[in-house]
Design brief:
two-stranded antiparallel ribbon, Ribosomal Protein L24e, Chain: T, two-stranded antiparallel sheet, 4 strands, mainly beta
Length: about 60
């Protein structure tokens, strides 16, 4: 599944795991992406959307 939101552009982020001894290991955070049917320009399409956009109402769901 794609790891980028088609609405806001949110995608995978990278950073460090920091242990108690202050060692750094690279890690990543993936957005919570859902493939949903949505109304785009008056037609129904399947798009990849993060749950933040779904919750905030930026996406009009299709029936």
């Amino acid at each position: 599944m794609a790891s980028k939101c088609d609405v806001c552009g949110k995608e995978k982020m990278f950073g460090n795991n920091v242990s108690f001894s202050n060692k750094k290991n690279r890690r990543s955070w993936s957005p919570n992406i859902r493939r949903v049917k949505a109304v785009v320009n008056g037609s129904t399409k399947r798009i990849n959307v993060c749950t933040r956009c779904l919750r905030s109402g930026r996406v009009e769901r299709a029936l």
